[in-house]
Amino acid sequence: MRELFLQTVELADQAGAVRRFDYFILIGEMDVGLFACESYGVKIAEQGGEQASVPNVTCSAARIDELSGLLVRNGVTPAALNDVVSDWL
Question: Is the pTM of this model over 0.85?
């Protein structure tokens, strides 16, 4: 699986400390019957901290662009990634 770096976002936590999060689109393959198609997922990694990923969210490049934009705009952290993707689906 490949990772396509999107952007780094700086967010302040409750104590006022600045935390940096890197956002990625994951690119892989998903078997669909007799053939495979390119699939897309997302990953968020805190610099020097935790990370979370959700592979194989969609086969649509437009949909993963929509989702990744939502994650970046709203400053979603690794701890919330699975819940946000579940709600989005």
Answer: yes
The secondary structure of residue 75, as a DSSP letter, is: T
Taking alpha carbons only, the member of 78, 53, 49 closest to residue 64 is 53
Contact 20, 31 (CB under 8 A): no
Model pLDDT for residues 2-56, shown as the tens digit of each residue? 999 999 999 988 888 899 999 999 999 888 788 888 999 999 999 999 999 999 9
Residue 67 near residue 87 (C-beta atoms within 8 A):
no
Quick one: which of 37, 56, 44, 39 has its CA closest to 81? Answer: 44
- If DSSP states are collapsed to H, E and C, what string results for 34-68? CEEEEEEEEEEEECCCCEEEEEEEECCHHHHHHHH
Task: Provide the β-strand partners of residue 66.
Answer: none
